[in-house]
Amino acid sequence: LVLSPKLVCLDIVHTPSAFDASPDADRFSYWGYRFEALCSGAGAGEAPPPARHGRPEWAGLFSRRLGGCDVLLAAETDGFCPDLAADAAGGATGERGASGAPPPPPTPHSAFLELKTLRWPTSAGAQAGLHARKVPSWWVQAWLAGVGGVWAGGREADGTLTRVDRIPTADLPPWSAGQGGGWRPDGVVAAGGGILEWVAARAGERAGQQVRVEYVPPPRRGGGARGPPAPGELRASVVEGGKLPGRVRAAVEERQWAG
Average of pLDDT values for 70-93? Predict the structure, then answer.
């Protein structure tokens, strides 16, 4: 939604899938909330966390430069660890040389944590998938908000927690590279900036309307396919009768009235 020639409001919409309606979705959500509770000091005998979407959340507003765009990002945070802020102030989360990661500035929210729980990979293929897809998304999510680190909880198939890896955000790229990850943080940032600029340009062509941007993955390749995979595609379309323009205008008017 374009509010002015230089201001675009973005809202993320989750596309429902068959997994969302499966018992696994509730079980995985419970394990994630339980891991957050344990990391926050809850003991084993305490009550389990509430059901999915039934718990309090803490969020902040963060600013970042990405490509040719200045980004204001509203993001939820999972936890707080004062040691991370001390590390950032001392430069431990600053530049890391060969990692190529843009250094996040030391800020009060450098003490914030991102918590992840997952079935830790046991095969080479699963480990490659973790470092090709999940870890880059962990890094960019934490980097955008200036979050100091990620705690990754490895669990068994029955949900038993077996390990917790505490990884400063700036250490995620070299840690992943040491496990076979083939991504570079500067490449992730450049790709994200390019996508944002593309989205802003498409939305600018439809000022005042709600525009949906979708990523269409490439067709699945057969087992005998050779050569680099085909790229996916971004598509933009107008959402007729979309509610986002009204929501944003109401929020702006409320803010102006309160001010």
Answer: 69
Name the average pLDDT for the chain.
79
Q: Which long-range contacts (CB under 8 A, 24 or more apart) does 136-141 make?
A: 136/176, 136/181, 136/183, 136/188, 138/114, 138/172, 139/101, 139/169, 139/172, 139/173, 139/176, 139/185, 139/188, 140/185, 140/188, 140/189, 140/192, 141/75, 141/114
How far apart CA 178 and CA 158 sit, in angstroms, is 28
* Residue 122 and residue 163 in contact, taking contact as beta carbons nearer than 8 Å: no
Q: Please, which pLDDT band fits residue 98 given cuts at 50, 70 and 90? A: very low
CA distance 220 to 225: 10
